[in-house]
Amino acid sequence: MNAVAKETTTTDRIKIRPTYLILGSGSFGFALAKELRELDKDLIIVDKDAQKVETLRDEAYEAIVGDVGDPALLDRINTKNLSGILILSSDTQANKAALENVRKKVSRDVYCVARATDVINMQEMESMGADLVIMPPRMVAKSLSRSLERAEGLRRGNKMAQWFESIRNKKMAIMVHNNPDPDAIASALALKAIANSHDIRSDIIYHGEIGHQENKAFVNLLGIDLYRYDDIEITSYDKIAMVDCSGPGANNPLPTNTHIGIIIDHHPITDSEIDAEFIDIRPNVGASSTIVTKYLQELNIDIDSKLATALLYGIRTDTMDFKRNTDSADLSAASYLYPLSDHDILDQLERPSMSIETLDVLGEAINNRQVIGSYLLSNVGSIRDRDTLPQAADYLLNLEGISTTVVFGVSEDKIFISGRSNDIRINLGDIMKRAFGEEAGGGHANAAAARIDLGVFSAAKDRQTLLRLVNEAVVKRFLTAVGVEEDDL
Ligand SMILES: [Mn+2]
Questions:
Q1: Are residues 164 and 209 in the same domain?
Q2: Three-state secondary-structure class, residue 370
Q3: Which of 54, 139, 261, 396 is the most buried (most CB within 10 A)?
Q4: Residues 172 and 127 in one domain
Q5: 183/322 same-domain check
Q6: Residue 352's pLDDT band (cuts 50, 70, 90)
Q7: Does residue 357 fall inside a structural domain?
Q8: What is the Å distance from ligand 1's center to 146 Cα?
Q9: What is the CA angle 270-271-277, rounded to 5?
Q10: How large is the average pLDDT for residues 269-277?
């Protein structure tokens, strides 16, 4: 394709100053080279197959023939301006040899990525000094499952939009269960917003009482309009929607043969014959509010602070503050709603034991959580009151599948780290010492803490960089101390 590149002599090629060096150009290395070139990066590719190198040159890539693991290879390349070396051949032994050479001959601040075929080699390469070890099939699987989840959400959203479109300009009743709780009312409010966006008039209808002080406060503080079933004529509505209950007659006053337009619920299904035009029942999710939040997102509907507050409170009460039946979807919905919510109202709805600052820190902790297997680490950034850290660590320990939590933040001149664990196999106090030093860390087997002087990071050019460096250091040191690699699980 490019005759000029082909005619350039080998000596010329060695003189160039690439930003990236790719060792091994199988399908993976080549795909990455293409990506990097699109980003306008200078790169040079090494492959042992002369034929392949010729083809790469035809496509105007800088490429040389060489053995990935050859100790003399790096002498042929100007590595001074490299920002990254990517060791990507499919031969693990060759990759290891290459990694060893790189760490011997190239400056430590050149970012080095190595490819492994299994976890054992992955760990070995990490200890040999690779900054990142990757296993391509695992990366592909992860990214694919994320795409599938997105596609599924999109499809559901489209279907719901179609359903609402089919009843444009009509009048809809939104039925909640008897003696409705915040989750039921908040979900109804969300459905009302979706109906509104399709010019559908809707009323939220309940039967029984709005019991409990908190539920009354919830309705009053947010100014939610609800109608009593006995005060309306259900047959005057064109369509009936049901939220937080699974069908007519199930904990609601509707006659069992009532035709239902839409059902959204998260309770385990007891009746096998649920009939409606649109049904979305997800028993694995902690709250109906979580399900409707996803629809609001998919359908691009504005969530005002009243709706966000209601939904967040709905999720929190139904999951008992993420302690019961909590799914990752509940947490992602909560962290999405959190910044949109009215924190003054939430504060008034809160049990008095939780201060607004603790809630802020908990919100940050949920937002920034990094889950590696059963470990949850979270950086909450700058903190005023470090007592909020153990409370947040305590709280997050209640999440399903989590047995150890580490929450950390920066206050003036120190990093404060707080950990909790209910894993009987580990001693958190010892781990904190191993990770952050005898002097800095300590505590008990199931509750421990550490503090590190920020002086170590004083070279950081601004606060943003500082917080990022702190995050990287704390996560890396902790995971190393417990013997877990980030991609290990
Ligand atoms: Mn519910």
A1: yes
A2: strand
A3: 396
A4: no
A5: yes
A6: very low
A7: yes
A8: 26
A9: 125
A10: 80
CA distance 366 to 328: 11
**Euclidean distance between CA atoms 56 and 39, whole angstroms:** 18
Question: Are both 122 and 161 inside the same structural domain?
Answer: no
- Nearest CA-CA partner of 307 in 317, 288, 293: 293
Q: Which residue has the higher pLDDT, 421 or 385?
A: 421
Q: What is the pLDDT of residue 248?
A: 92
Under DSSP, the state recorded for 104 is H
Residue 117 belongs to domain with CATH number: 3.40.50.720
Contact status, residue 62 vs residue 50, Cβ threshold 8 Å? no
What integer is the mean pLDDT of 26-42? 91
Question: What's the 325 CA to ligand 1 centre distance in angstroms?
Answer: 11
Give me ligand 1 centre to Cα 131, in Å: 45
Least confident of 32-36, 211-215, 333-337, 464-468: 211-215
In a domain, 345, yes or no: no
Domain boundary among 328, 361, 386: 328
The whole-angstrom separation of Cα 30 and Cα 25 is: 5
Please check whether residues 130 and 158 belong to one and the same domain: no
318 C-alpha to ligand 1 centroid (Å): 6
C-alpha atoms less than 13 angstroms from C-alpha of 84 in its C-beta half-sphere? 15
Q: From the CA of 312, how far away is ligand 1's center (Å)?
A: 12
Average pLDDT over residues 366-371: 90
Asked which of 134, 164, 191 is the last residue of a domain, the reply is: 134
Which residue, among 267, 316, 315, 275, has the nearest Cα to 294 in the 3D structure?
A: 315
User: How many domains does the structure of the chain reveal?
Assistant: 3
For residue 434 the two structure tokens come to: 């191993």
Q: How far is CA 402 from CA 80, 131, 367, 376, 429, in A?
A: 44, 27, 16, 7, 18
d(CA 68, CA 302): 54
Rounded (5°) CA angle 340-345-351: 115
Q: Provide the CATH number for the domain around residue 389.
A: 3.10.310.30
3-state helix, strand, coil in the chain (%, to 5): 45, 20, 35
372: CA distance to ligand 1 center in Å? Answer: 29
